[in-house]
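Continuing the batch. This is chain 6 of the set; chains 1 through 5 are on the previous pages. Same settings as before, nothing changed between runs. Recording input and output for traceability.
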Amino acid sequence: MRIVAVVCVLFPLLARGAAQPSFALLVNETQTVRMLGVTAAWAIDPAVVDASAQHHRVVVSARAPGATKVVVISVTGQH
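Output for chain 6:
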């Protein structure tokens, strides 16, 4: 069982300097996070996870072991 280490999703509604939420996924596992106003999302390292914005949700799918961050764009800007 391979684990994709901490995936940090940069949420737009958190105060500046606040701790960013993170989670761990197994390879081939998917995590969906509901976010109103999200227009785009992508992984800094797409070899580790695939990230996308779909219907007010950020969908993150683990592709390989490793760690990365996910950038989220919302109607309020990049986060």
